[in-house]
Design goal:
With about 130 residues, the protein is mostly helical. The protein is about 50% helix and about 5% strand. It has a single domain, classed as Arc Repressor Mutant, subunit A (Orthogonal Bundle), CATH 1.10.10. It has a two-stranded antiparallel ribbon.
């Protein structure tokens, strides 16, 4: 499983917004060393997920819609990349010819265990805790 660069950048965007108030895309991009194009793209995804909210206009920008103490890395990663899988076979809708009811695949079982551990860890701390540690 690869936590994508977009997942990293999404956390950075929230860090840029953590001070409160409206922050425009250019300011976020400069502060967090992300291109404005990527910042805008990810901000739209975070906005659509209800994590941040956009305000249009000359003095517009983005601000947090949910406090950091109510968000986890898992929440953010799901908003950006809904396919957080160690391997394709750990997804709900994937099938594997090597993992059947008659002959279960022990590697698949281990991947599922690791997948659960990863998800549990991503959910275990708020972003506020992560950013203040």
């Amino acid at each position: 499983m690869l936590l994508t660069r977009e997942c990293d950048y999404a956390i950075r965007i929230l860090r840029a917004l953590s001070g409160g108030g409206l922050v425009n895309v250019a300011e976020i991009a400069e502060k967090e060393d992300i291109t404005t194009q990527i910042t805008y793209k990810l901000a739209r995804r975070l906005d659509k997920a209800g994590i941040i909210e956009s305000h249009r206009g000359v003095n517009g920008g983005y601000q947090l819609a949910v406090p950091l103490n109510q968000l986890t890395m898992y929440d953010v990663f799901q908003a950006v990349d809904q396919k957080l899988l160690i391997t394709e076979c750990t997804g709900n809708h994937s099938s594997c010819s090597r993992n059947t009811k008659e002959q279960p695949c022990m590697v698949h079982k281990e991947f599922c265990r690791l997948q659960k551990l990863m998800v549990d860890e991503l959910k275990s701390r708020s972003l506020l805790e992560v950013m203040n540690s």
